[in-house]
Amino acid sequence: MTISLSRAGALAAACAVLLTACGGSTGPATPTPSVDVGRASPVTPLDAATVARAEKQGSVLLYTNADADQTAPLAKAFEAKYPAIDVRVLNMNDPQTFQRYATETATGVRTADVVMATDSVGMLTFVRDGNVLDYDDPNLRHLPAYARLAPGVVAMSEDPLVAVYNTALIPKDEQPPDLASLAALSTSLKGKVATTDIGNPIAFGAVSNYTARQGESGWRNLETLGRTSGVESGNGNLIQKLAQGQYQAAYFVAGSVRALIESEEAAKLLNYTYLKDATPLLPRAVAVTAEAASPDAGKLFVNFLLSVEGQEAACEGGFTPYRDGVDCAYGLPAIEAVVGAGNVRPAGYLDDIVKKQPEIVARWNKAYDR
Predict the structure, then answer these.
(1) How far is CA 128 from the centre of its chain?
(2) pLDDT value at position 132?
(3) How confident is the model at residue 263 (pLDDT cuts 50, 70, 90)?
(4) In a domain, 323, yes or no
(5) What whole-number distance in Å separates Cα of residue 343 and Cα of residue 89?
(6) How far is Cα 300 from Cα 297, in angstroms, rounded to an integer?
């Protein structure tokens, strides 16, 4: 996700608009229950020769849709473990990542060693066009089958979509626990409920995953919401307007906002929740590129991201680790404890998602009168 406002400043500024709401404490946002995170599987590092080559290469360049505050803990932990390798991060949205890589490789300019993206269609097209090194990390033998998304592509996290409410306008005890209830409520809150446009890869992932699971009943909920929902281009505008009171509720919001909302000031105004019938999980994919200048450093970085140590650093950045043995307030076991294990199912990319994209987009556009 790319948030146009700084994570630290967006909600602090918005709170100034609603001084009364921010003046008193309502306690923290949605608490995460204590859960069993399982036992960590064996460590599976790369071989010594690959590590030596990676250290000689000396740097790894990452293009990612995650913002700087999210990736900072990853870079810091990796550089602490491998001090001979510097991590350079360029934050941009997924289409920019793929376009920049194409331009740079065409002109012979150094490009990304590793890409990190949420856009399933974009990543599968990237693979199809021969832009990914077909690398199997040794961690995969200890990870669920859904960790492998495509040849050379793995999930470093399974990030949920959440609902966010302005607690000054919809108190916690009145906040709908599922999307069906929110759809029903939206008919009396015309223009006060919002989401992001399906042109945003995160929104497309949310809609495609939700409707794949809920079928026609899910589409009926979206059609009800579509008649009354505001639509924003991205999560930055969505959260800012929610905090300012222009919206009372938002759905299919990227889960990376959880850490922001749990800050002391923001928690006085906003609350996020996992919807029991609509908490899609979007795999955040990582891959070493075919034209990487530091391919071994790229492999080592991916290997670290999939390790317990790397997954713990991912948690610190607000990602959702899925590897057993990682104690994380944002991890899969914590989500399952809220919505029930049967209501959240991590998976890889949907079958034929590239082929189905135009149909899904067209139906959503019709429902939302776009």
Answers:
(1) 23
(2) 98
(3) confident
(4) yes
(5) 35
(6) 5
